[in-house]
Structures are given as C-alpha cells and as structure tokens.
Amino acid sequence: MKVLITGAAGFIGQLLAKELLADPEHELVLVDIVEPPVPAGCKYPGNAKTIKTDLTKSASTIITPDIDAVYVFHGIMSAGAEANFELGMSANIDATRALFEAIRLSGKPTPIRVLYASSQAVYGMPTPDIVTEAVVPTPESSYGAQKLICEALINDYTRRGFFDGFAFRFPTISVRPGKPTAAASSFLSGMIREPLNGLPCEIPIENRKFAHWICSPRTLVANLIYALTMPSDAAPKHIRVVNLPGIGVTVQEMIDALEAIGGKEAVALLSEKDVPELREILYSWPPNFDNKRAYDMGFKPDQPFVDTVKDYYENFVKK
C-alpha cells in the first residue's frame, strides 16, 4: 500500500511513519512545509520518500495515481491559529482544500482512503457532562472553526465519491517528546516531559481540578493504523466524523503520575500561574467523552495515564 502523510515532520507523522515502515508492504511519501526526515530506527527506510513543499501551491504534484491512502496531519495548532488568523486559514483550510481537490481530480478508479486529523477543539461551551458525536460543535477558537470546516468537506467529498474519508477528532496527545508547540494544550505534555528531563515547567492554569481529554501516542497510532483498512461502511457516507478514544485526566492526576514515575524531585520542577489568553481556550474544551461510536467501529481504548508516563520515561529518558 502506498501511503502519503502530510505534516510528516511532526511528532504524530513521524511516529506513525515509523510504525508503517515496520511492514515491507508499505511505501510512504512524507510531505511537509519543512524537510521531513525518515524516522530514525525504522525497519524499512528505503520504502520512504520525502518531499518539502507548500500544499497550497503544489498539492496536484504529490497526488499520483498509485497513492492508496492519505493521512492529513498538516496545519497550525490552536494558539498559533488564534494568534495569526491568516496563517491559520492558509495552513488549516486552504492547504487542506487544495489537497482534497488534487485527490478529487486524480482520476483514481478506486477511491483513495483519506484520514483527516481533526480535534476536540470543534466543541465549545456549553456542552453536556458527557460529549458524543451527537453534540453540535460550536467552536470558540479559529482553530476549532477551521477544523470543523474541513470535517464538512470530508463528509461531502466522501458522499460524492471523490474519496473515502474519515475525520477523527483527536484528544490532546500526551506525552509528546521534543519541544513545546503552539497548541494551548502544549503544557499537558510539558508538565511531564520537562521535569522528567530535569527541566522546569510552568502550568498555565491554577486549578488542579482542571480536567482534559487526552490520549497516549501508543493508542493513537494503533487506532490510526487500524483506520487504514477498516471497512468503509463503518459509517454512513455523509457522517464520517468520529471522536477517537481517550481518557479524562485532571492536572492533579497528571502530577500524581509524574511523581509515581519521576519522584518528588520531578514534581518540584513544576510551577503554576494563570495565563489569561490560554485560559479561555482551555476552558472551552469539554473534559469527558463517550467513545461508544469509536468502540463500535473497532477502535481500541486508551491505557491509564501513569502507563503513558512510564512509556515516555522508558523510550525517551531512561538511559
């Protein structure tokens, strides 16, 4: 199977690519606006090709008749899209629509499987105590609005038979390695990652009862790989949006997991200070979801958060 991944230089793109490149039957095209690397340590690096390009200008050149599936991961994240409206619209909508049009016009007789990374940021308050796909999205950020627009495109392009698409509303992914991102939720990885690496981290919200819906990288990648070959009729052609499984975790529970793996010395590296410009975004996201639809479609549940912290420690910290 030949698979294209946009936003392939990012953490999820790299993690997914490494897993796919463990199978000799997969051939990958890794695309990003910066030069995307072939993941270090992958089993079949020769099966990957990398392309540095701007999708708004060149989407038609990367969609070739032999492409079987596309993971759509490119974009500007929440706080970045809020700070720069024009950039958010260009990266999150214009580049995505250019890609969708290139797929539509590719002439491939068998519809290409398109797997789009959406977000729980499409929801805004008020929401019920437990959110399902039946809850009407009312985003309170430009990022959430941009994701919702692209979800509508996924539904319509699939209904019309232009491709075989699904839009997945990701929980916040934690723990991510690397550096902080422009996401409002970046601290939900930073408050684990930085202390385990001996670095301080400021939590931008002074409320340890604040809860957020998150998912481990391990579970997300397993579910994304499952989605590559799951039956198309798992959802109606005009209702292709799915909330991927996650778990609700409070700041206090995350601190407890950090202490369980890193000890009190790791917790001592945390500080807490309200950041008003992030507070509004963070409190607009619902903390609890019912993932029955995803489970009925065959997706797997997430693991306890302390296990995720242990995964991060063993894979990125432990010598």
From TrEMBL:
InterPro entries: Epimerase_deHydtase, NAD(P)-bd_dom_sf. SUPFAM superfamilies: NAD(P)-binding Rossmann-fold domains (SSF51735). Pfam families: Epimerase. The keyword Isomerase does not apply. The keyword Disulfide bond does not apply. CDD domains: Gne_like_SDR_e. Residues 3-203 form the NAD-dependent epimerase/dehydratase domain. Keywords: Carbohydrate metabolism, NADP. It comes from the Eukaryota. This is Nucleoside-diphosphate-sugar epimerase.
